[in-house]
Design a protein that fits this description.
With 60 residues, the chain is of the alpha+beta class. The chain contains 2 helices and 3 strands. The termini are close together.
């Protein structure tokens, strides 16, 4: 299964770890989106920045 992750809030003035997670996910600018495999590693990264992103399931 795949998920679409969209950055809905700005990463400005966030702690270094949160910015690093967003960069690792491939999210840079507000309203940018990426599609990733739904894995435990990705879910953990999303949990750290859940207040900044929106997650949707993508039909394959």
């Amino acid at each position: 299964m795949k998920i679409k992750i969209t950055l809905v809030k700005s990463p400005a003035n966030r702690i270094k770890n949160q910015k690093a997670n967003l960069t690792a996910l491939g999210l840079g600018k507000t309203n940018s989106s990426v599609i990733k495999e739904d894995r435990k590693e990705i879910q953990g990264m999303i949990a750290k920045v859940a207040h900044l992103v929106k997650v949707e399931q993508v039909a394959e």
